[in-house]
Design a protein that fits this description.
2 domains, alpha/beta, about 400 residues, Nucleotidyltransferase, domain 5, 14 strands, binds adenosine monophosphate, six-stranded mixed beta sheet
Length: about 400
């Protein structure tokens, strides 16, 4: 069974075609700058483990033209991996915000689209683009089932004490203000894999999943169910990120707006785009930050110290929430590649039963690997995330239920 996974943004479409017989990627790519003069498609085809890359540059008027290009690319003799688009059994769409309506992946029909649209206010940058991707796929793949897989669904098992904010209760009932959490597909995938890695069933394991990429979030997963997560109503909350501030005193927003004569929207943009690592040291890529820190840049050192400290604090608080912890799993760009960050987060945690093996931790880690010592009570692992595979698996599970 072949599943196409689509992640549609406002001016981009990321895709991956997977063969679920062996769960391998057949092709993947990204179409960017849709609607601008300098559009592009970067496509990779995988045959027997070999990767063949193609890049096209041309104007791509809209998502429909982008999706046409995608179909041509995956079916053409030169760049393709299938001969006809009808070989695709279903399309799995990443949808960012499912609100409280969606606790699991869902076959898309008119009512699903309406419910996704109702959540647009909670994810104005993402949900409308995700819907455009869905509508375009429905038009260009008539008769092929479409499934929505939500970033928020894994976190819907959080109890009210974890998802409610201490605000007037009507803010929850009228405005849907609560913690939703994001990166759910990644946390779900990694929580399952880490349970397997430590030889337990997901229902037997308590784990902390640490997703550190350009965006970052941490989840406490008790017996397979998320009980808390660091992102909030929006992806701005929680740990410090590439350019997002993470948790700050909520009074700061109003104070900055008054002092600098900025609107709420302008302050919000600063908190999302000019803060985090970038706000502290001017760079948002951890590789550049380490390089500058090694050359003595004090701000870069401070940024790394702040980042690793807040991650450590979240992990500590989830030990308290979970009671017992079997394993911690690092994932995503920084979690998988950055041994300095992993070491800084995990040192001085002997009191919690965490002992990192610095030799095992060394370097970039591209496959599942234990990085704690034999004696460490809590196992620490690097588990490379695979959100597309999780979306494809959820899509297959929905098809099988029909
Ligand atoms: P992601 O959002 O998961 O794609 O992660 C992207 C981020 O991972 C980048 O912004 C970098 O900060 C970080 N990253 C990627 N490769 C490395 C590396 N080799 N060392 C440190 N950080 C890395």
């Amino acid at each position: 069974m072949k599943i196409l996974v689509i992640n549609a943004g406002s001016s981009s479409i990321k895709y991956q075609l997977l063969d679920m017989a062996d769960q391998q990627i057949m092709a993947s790519g990204i179409i960017e700058r849709i609607g601008e003069p300098n559009g592009s498609l970067a496509h990779k085809k995988f045959i027997n483990g070999e990767e063949q890359k193609t890049v096209f540059e041309r104007t791509i008027k809209d998502h429909k033209e982008g999706m046409h290009l995608l179909i041509e690319t995956i079916t053409s003799a030169e760049t393709g991996v299938i001969s006809d688009k009808n070989e695709i059994s279903a399309i799995g769409h990443r949808v960012v915000q499912g609100g409280e309506a969606f606790r699991q992946a869902t076959l898309i029909d008119e009512s699903t689209k309406r419910a996704i649209e109702e959540n647009n206010v909670l994810a104005p940058l993402h949900n409308p683009a995700n819907l455009t991707g869905i509508r375009t796929a429905e038009e260009l793949f008539p008769g092929t089932p479409n499934v929505a897989v939500f970033d928020t669904e894994f976190h819907q098992t959080m109890p009210p004490k974890a998802f409610m904010y201490a605000l007037p209760y009507e803010f929850y009932t009228d405005l849907k203000i609560r913690r939703y959490g994001y990166h759910g597909t990644s946390h779900k995938y990694v929580a399952k894999r880490i349970a397997k890695a430590i030889d337990k069933r997901p229902e037997e394991a308590n784990v902390i999943t640490v997703h550190l990429g350009n965006g970052g979030s941490i989840s406490a997963v008790q017996q397979g169910k998320c009980i808390d997560t660091s992102m909030g109503m929006t992806p701005l909350a929680g740990v410090m990120m590439g350019s997002r501030c993470g948790d700050i005193d909520p009074a700061i927003s109003g104070y900055v707006a008054d002092q600098k004569n900025l609107s709420a929207g302008e302050v919000d943009a600063i908190l999302n785009k000019e803060s985090g690592l970038k706000g502290i040291c001017g760079m948002n890529d951890m590789r550049d930050i380490h390089e500058s820190a090694a050359q003595g840049d004090e701000r870069a050192k401070l940024a790394v110290d702040m980042f690793t400290y807040v991650v450590k604090k979240y992990i500590g608080s989830y030990f308290a929430a979970l009671g017992t912890v079997d394993a911690i799993a690092f994932t995503a760009g920084i979690g998988e590649n950055d041994d300095i960050v992993r070491a800084a987060v995990c040192t001085n945690m002997q009191g919690l039963g965490v002992e990192i093996d610095l030799a095992a931790n060394e370097g970039r880690i591209s496959s599942e690997k234990r990085i704690s010592t034999e004696d460490s009570k809590v196992q620490v692992w690097v588990i490379p995330t695979n959100e597309e595979l999780q979306i494809a698996k959820d899509t297959v599970a929905i098809l099988e239920k029909q």
